[in-house]
Amino acid sequence: MLTNVTLKALKPEGKPYKKPDGGGLFILVEMNGSKLWRFVCRYDGKQKLLSGGGYPDTSLVVARAWREKMKHQLALGLDPSIERAKETAKPEAGTTFEEIAREWLAARKLAWVPKYASHITRRLEGDMFPAVGDLDNQPDGGLKRHDGKRESSCSRSSSDRLRSIFQRHGRLVTGC
Predict the structure, then answer these.
(1) pTM over 0.70, yes/no
(2) Which of 88, 105, 135 is the endpoint of a domain?
(3) Residue 36 located in a structural domain
(4) Are the CB atoms for 33 and 12 separated by under 8 Å?
């Protein structure tokens, strides 16, 4: 079992080396001094090596929790590398702006005062959905018309209102 003192004392050598923590988790010390968390496991009869970040950005406690999460996924019969890819996947192309906005609205409505929630709903339904509601979402975060051309003809006020609503609530909008 590793400790924080042991981790801080690890120094680079002539070639990369591993220090085990247990349960498949180890830290890889590179020749340049970087210390990287790794988890080795078997899935479907094949060995897999998963990366868990660098030390000290990923602490010992966080790395152990990550190991337990990976072991739990394995116990459920899931491939941890595929599950990780699902977590970081971008939204699928083909979903319209209106569908995404309604999902966003439903997720945030419960935390808002009812008057504010109805105000935002009215703004989206009155200004945004008529202008850009049927545009397809693209993996790069842009919007595209159904005929494949980039949309750039929404009004200045609609574009500004769209940007202000989503920036205020933690979503990046590149414009329409």
Answers:
(1) no
(2) 88
(3) yes
(4) yes
